[in-house]
Design goal:
about 140 residues, 4 helices
């Protein structure tokens, strides 16, 4: 069976049950569960996790059936024929947004209400200290 590489920029990845065999009525006789790596993967390129060896024909069918979903339309999930092309496509799509990006609590522009006083400054310092002390902070390989 021919395979492809799938890029996924969703923060949690995506579980898919792809129909790899069906009877004459189109009813699934065999499915294969695929876990698409997302931004939570240990190795990300341009914000995308790349999943290798995804069955090409069932995934193309899934893309067609789900073409109106927002994460397919905006390119958060895409397919390429090989790893080199997938890495290039992920790098080119680096700036595309999924709409699920985290809000930085230190970004004053992202907050609707600005906290005031000493408590706000203490909270900001505490958050900066926690970020600096977080041992898991740099576990991902980001390209």
């Amino acid at each position: 069976m021919e395979t492809c590489v799938v890029g996924c920029k969703l923060p949690h990845g995506l579980n898919l049950d792809l129909v790899v065999a069906a009877d004459s009525d189109g009813k699934a006789t065999r499915t294969q569960r695929i876990l698409l790596k997302g931004k939570n993967a240990s190795h990300i390129i341009g914000g995308y996790g790349l999943t290798q060896n995804v069955p090409k024909e069932p995934f193309e069918r899934w893309l067609k059936e789900n073409s109106q979903r927002p994460f397919v339309r905006n390119g958060s999930v895409f397919m390429e024929s090989n790893n080199e092309r997938a890495r290039k496509a992920a790098s080119e799509r680096r700036t595309e947004k999924t709409g699920l990006e985290a809000i930085d609590p230190l970004d004053d522009k992202a907050r609707a209400v600005e906290p005031e006083g000493d408590d706000a400054q203490k909270a900001k310092r505490k958050l900066l200290q926690q970020r600096a002390e977080n041992p898991d902070r740099n576990r991902q390989i980001v390209e």
